[in-house]
UniProtKB/TrEMBL annotation:
Location of region: Disordered: 1-123
Compositional bias of kind Polar residues: 72-87
Organism: Streptantibioticus cattleyicolor (strain ATCC 35852 / DSM 46488 / JCM 4925 / NBRC 14057 / NRRL 8057)
InterPro entries from the UniProt entry: Terpenoid_cyclase/PrenylTrfase
Protein name per UniProt: Prenyltransferase
Biased composition (Low complexity): 24-58
Signal peptide: none
Keyword Zinc-finger: no
Length: 436
């Protein structure tokens, strides 16, 4: 899943930013409205609101070297087989609430009070997440599995079996991923559901990288080949665009513009660069892209959630950790000032939807900090993060899947996107799960 949205109004406000327009796969300049909620998303995630969306989706389930995504999957212990029984969403949410209320030291009923007066920010470094939070259990996984077996593409079914089932060999996942690879080494054929056709696009790469990371298959050889492909599509400014002119003949959402002279975008470049930096690949492209992303992050003023997520993806892997922490703190200030993240799902009126976003297309703390070790985790209190995770857990539908939050432009793409969103939700819940 990746974030693929470009914003018209936001881009105008940032026209002098070295990174170019603020969006990547979705543009809100001419964007129709889209609709409602989801999770931070894993491969195949990064095409919801524009470019931003598709790319965010893909990287939601990132793994690192060995893979952030794989770490997210294993921190809670070994893979768990689903149990029997399929209670509804309300029952699962109630179980989670009851579990939280039983925790030692937690006030019974209601939300735990925020630790600081500022409703958006914690003091100091990201708090160590408390143990004993059962955000995900066998029932949640089984319900999601029923949905994925019924509605998922081969890729999502293979990923689910590998990440949450009893399949230990990633070969099936990688074979399914290879079906989306073009002859030139890029990825196409709807890997990112909002981008159709056989012409490889940069916006599809975050989804591919997430799969390679979570399977432990992103090695130096693969990474160098991907960097060779990226070098061939990099704009003169050092960044990669979300989409290339080669997409023009093929179906795409009406909010996804195609420029005759593409420029680099932080929304695309940041998501792609993060996994390659974690791997430490020896190739000129990451060095050039790092310079581009540093300038783009430092130039951020008016922004939107999908661009923030791309910036965080870069900052979490940036080699200069002192600089990254400083920029993350500044970016957190922007997020607070512009009210870009929904801190309490019971009060959506307190967040500002960016221009071009669909009604209900909110971002919660776990969307910008999909792992507890992200620099963005320090932007939120424990209580704010818990509320977001509780909302995410309760958003699982009766069919076992999670909904998409962006506008539907094609029935087919919605059907193809929900399985990726569902896996992203499971990975986020597992990343924050701290049960022994």
């Amino acid at each position: 899943m990746s974030f693929t949205r470009q914003q018209g109004d936001v881009s105008k406000g940032r026209s002098k930013n070295p990174a170019g327009p603020a969006g990547s796969h979705r543009s809100t300049t001419d964007s129709p409205t889209r609709s409602s909620p989801g999770a931070t998303t894993v491969a195949s995630a990064s095409s919801r609101v524009s470019c931003a969306r598709a790319m965010a989706r893909s990287t939601n389930g990132e793994c690192g070297r060995p893979g952030w995504a794989s770490l997210a999957v294993t921190t809670s212990g070994p893979k768990r087989r689903p149990s029997t029984g399929t209670p509804g969403t309300a029952e699962v949410a109630g179980h989670l609430d009851a579990h939280l209320d039983r925790r030692p030291g937690r006030p019974r009923g209601g939300h735990a009070p925020d630790a600081v007066a500022d409703p958006f920010k914690t003091r100091g470094p990201a708090p160590a997440y408390r143990r004993g939070m059962a955000w995900i259990n066998d029932t949640v996984i089984e319900r999601a599995g029923r949905f994925l077996w019924a509605s998922g593409r081969v890729l999502e079914q293979r990923r689910f079996a590998f990440l949450f089932g009893d399949e230990d060999d990633p070969a099936g996942v990688l074979t399914a991923l290879d079906a989306y690879r073009g002859r030139d080494g890029g990825y196409a054929y709807g890997l990112e559901p909002d981008v159709r056709g056989p012409a490889p696009q940069p916006i599809a790469l975050p989804a591919a990288l997430a799969v390679l990371e979570e399977t432990g298959a992103l090695d130096a050889s693969r990474a160098r080949r991907l960097c060779d492909w990226l070098a061939g599509v990099t704009a003169p400014d050092g960044g990669v665009p979300a989409v290339l002119p080669t997409l023009r003949p093929y179906p795409r959402p009406p909010w996804l513009p195609i420029s005759g002279e593409p420029h680099g975008e932080l929304l695309a470049t940041g998501q792609i660069l993060g996994p390659l930096l974690r791997l430490g690949v020896d190739h000129p492209w990451p060095r050039t892209a790092t310079e581009f992303c540093r300038a783009a992050v430092e130039g951020l003023r008016q922004t939107h959630p999908y661009e923030v997520r791309a910036a965080v993806a870069f900052l979490d892997a940036a080699p200069d950790r002192t600089w990254a922490r400083r920029q993350a703190e500044r970016l957190g200030d922007l997020v607070r000032e512009q009210r870009l993240v929904l801190l309490d799902p019971d009060h959506p009126e307190r967040v500002r939807l960016a221009p071009g976003y669909a009604p209900g297309e909110y971002h919660l703390p776990h969307d910008v900090a999909p792992r507890p070790d992200s620099l963005a985790r320090a932007w939120f209190t424990d209580a704010q993060t818990r509320r977001g995770l509780r909302h995410l857990a309760a958003a699982q539908r009766e069919d076992g899947g999670w909904p998409i939050t962006w506008a539907r432009w094609s029935a087919t793409t919605e059907v193809e996107a929900r399985p990726g969103v569902t896996l992203a939700a499971l990975l986020t819940l597992r990343a924050y799960d701290r049960t022994p």
